[in-house]
Amino acid sequence: xxxxxxxxxxxxxxxxxxxxxxxxxxxxxxxxxxxxxxxxxxxxxxxxxxxxxxxxxxxxxxxxxxxxxxxxxxxxxxxxxxxxxxxxxxxxxxxxxxxxxxxxxxxxxxxxxxxxxxxxxxxxxxxxxxxxxxxxxxxxxxxxxxxxxxxxxxxxxxxxxxxxxxxxxxxxxxxxxxxxxxxxxxxxxxxxxxxxxxxxxxxxxxxxxxxxxxxxxxxxxxxxxxxxxxxxxxxxxxxxxxxxxxxxxxxxxxxxxxxxxxxxxxxxxxxxxxxxxxxxxxxxxxxxxxxxxxxxxxxxxxxxxxxxxxxxxxxxxxxxxxxxxxxxxxxxxxxxxxxxxxxxxxxxxxxxxxxxxxxxxxxxxxxxxxxxxxxxxxxxxxxxxxxxxxxxxxxxxxxxxxxxxxxxxxxxxxxxxxxxxxxxxxxxx
Length: 429
Known about the structure:
The chain is α/β, with parallel strands linked by helices. It is built from 17 helices and 14 strands. The protein folds into 3 domains: about 25-225, Rossmann fold; about 230-375, Nitrogenase molybdenum iron protein domain (Rossmann fold, 3-Layer(aba) Sandwich); about 395-429, no CATH class. It is globular and about 85 Å long.
């Protein structure tokens, strides 16, 4: 854990590079590129080889897809309490998604000129769902659940083989997934995006993944739409003297436990005593957590306590960092909120822990990291729609503006552009 004093005039320089972490190392992109190229060339044969190489599972093409019977059998293993939690989260995430769907519109903005926008749901979307020691059941809901609420008809889930968790399969059923493939990592992502025989290509691929999956998504962008290139998780908490150290510590640890070792947990405060109390609480709480060893990997180099002179400086520092998750554990969070310009998600007050957003609050937990919130948004309903602008002119309206068309055509030396306007009003023989 590192402490940084940002009360002086040189505070910006002390924060340089704090969050400028790459989403993945260079070797991940090189490896991903090789796998994608191989699957383009050899298709199913290559996929089967990578499943055995990386996930130690022998699969035939017929075993790629998880059928309805297997999903139903998995659902029977899920406890009633877990089913209720999954259904509730699905409902609440869908409610938010429906409330934020873009709406088609048309308006006459000048006499004879109608403009607007038309939004149409994508037809086929892929969602990547990580597996392993932390099966991200909630990610199903925060990707596929939103797609379903937006009217996407075909939702294809890809998740690593080797025993897909029953809760994950049950969540897929609840969220509206229509196809499930037990294919993981780069080879799973490539299987649904490059056009393997028997698996139609998706139009967009969303969802988090490890460094190699993230690199693959970036390489495939353009051929397929993606949500964003996101790296390891991070949280930044702004706290004042009113904050409960136990709450702050618990929330910092919630992100440090993810497992890559590259996560970051940052506390910004004006209160020096709070730092001591939070450190003690962190050291005590982590001893009772099942992923203590993973937290320890983050504790030395990924946990930062930043002292500032006032909350105005705290807001400036947060804007510079542009965190994935930003908590305001201050006495009047609504007063500070307007000063904050860049964060994937903002959580107000002591009773809004970041994991409530991870699981069931409503907005998607697929969010930008490593300061990319300065440039990108998290996954939202609009991501599952195509947008078309709508324009209609009457004859009289075009007559008023045809000279503009001609002049721009001349300025840009594009004669046919100008003629497309003028030909409607005079013969051009």
